[in-house]
Amino acid sequence: MLKNLFITHPVLIKHAHEADGPFTDAERGGHGDITLKRFLDAKHLIMLGVGGVIGAGIFVLTGTAAAQYAGPALIISFIIAGATCALAALCYAEFASMLPVSGGAYAYSYATLGEMVAWFVGWNLVLEYMLACSTVAVGWSAYFNEMLHLLSGWIGVDLTLPGSFVSAPFSFNTDMHLVTTGALLNIPAILIIAALSWLCYRGITQSATANAVIVTIKVAVIVLFLVVTFHYIQPSLWHPFIPPNEGGTHYGWSGVIRGASVVFFGYLGFDAISTAAGETKNPRRNMPIGILGALLVCTILYMSMSAALTGLAPFRNLNTAEPVATAINYVLSTVHMGSTARFVLKALKVIVVFGALAGLSSVVLVTLFAQSRIFYSMSQDGLLPESISKLHGKSRTPYLSTIFAGIVCATLASLFPISVLGDMVSMGTLLAFAIVCLGVLVLRYTRPELPRTFRVPMAGLICPLATAACLFLFWRVFSQRWWLFLGWTLIGLLIYGFYGYHHSKLRRSASFRSRAPVIVKEIS
Q1: Which residue has the higher pLDDT, 513 or 403?
Q2: pTM (two decimals)
Q3: How far apart, in whole angstroms, are the C-alpha atoms of residue 453 and residue 86?
Q4: Which of 227, 207, 229, 230 is nearest to 219 (CA)?
Q5: Contact in structure between 88 and 391 (CB atoms under 8 Å)
Q6: Where are the alpha helices (DSSP H) in 383-458?
Q7: φ/ψ bin of 338: left (φ > 0), alpha (ψ from -120 to 50), beta (otherwise)
């Protein structure tokens, strides 16, 4: 019984000269002649990664991490998170070049550490992407109401939504007990998820094109913000750079580390790239480029923005759902300037709000896309109902999993606040990363002959170091939210025990029943 829990999925390899990757999703068990559409190239993948990474980390969570944990040392938190993510990204790049399949970390774990571990990783990826989508949608709602406030000032009519319709009705107090806030539902969060779920339903071509346009806009807005506000940065606000510890993880070095675990949420987008392998042209080449390229661009932008925000306003003032707009408001209210400069800053605030809406929209889009592909891959393996992996005849998208993911994400976003959702995402992300890093090392010893167009340098050092770094940051969050994470894990184990274990296609296959040592299946 115990051995059966850790059966590994056959590694499927096509001939290296075939440009469309090692195999199609139909060859893994698709439906009829309909397969995922291979449309994405390296440029699209970098855009997909930037679309998923740059958003909540800058426009939402920077404020929370600075105000509650790291202070001006938030830039160190980003360096720690970025370095940890870079180690994991190297491992992802090797896996993506070797096993470019839909499902990302879930599929990698299935091929190396076995079905039980794969289910655990997949279940945590479900946690990661659904809660990430919900978290970002909550931030989008705050910026949307800020936009309505700006429009109200222009036309003289109050268009802002009442607080009861843009806030979560539930929250957790300091004792981690669920309490009501008096709000009803976060309506804008529901609407943005519904709109972008429809776009994912339409097809990969439309989704990738829309994402590329949005990414271009939000990167341009971030660069404009950095250029315009550089003159107003006050170095005195960076002192003390690491505020004295006020107990627990509030400031000091413990706060800096805790801040790193919070902002790690912002790096989940590069993991989303790995879920798009089934829709990527020449994935052996393009997947590593997309993963590492997106990480480099995003780390530079994150560090620049964290330094700018904490230099524009006192870090304690940034504990809002729209910290970038908050920083501009602080400059406008405290700095003496001419009418032209004031007009420029007010115009910048408007641009930032629209840029944040665009940026957060792309994150919601990417997380919905990744979530549906995780469901799709797990369903094809029989661990979830087969109907979830059905592809639309025209758009060739997993439309049922897209609809289901949208409904769940909208429900969570309408009910819960950013802080708790963000912590749960970080735990799921860090644990998945740790297992992927371990999996690379396992395959180096068990399947050294498999072709790898990208190899982790000094894997014997990098892989264990990456695993340890991810688990260290995971523990910083787990120690506070352990009961939520264990509850989620228990639900997942029950689903696997009562459904996934008995419906696993691999376990029901002839090769498994005969215990034939199928490791590699060559497809010609």
Answers
A1: 403
A2: 0.74
A3: 18
A4: 227
A5: no
A6: 399-415, 418-446
A7: beta
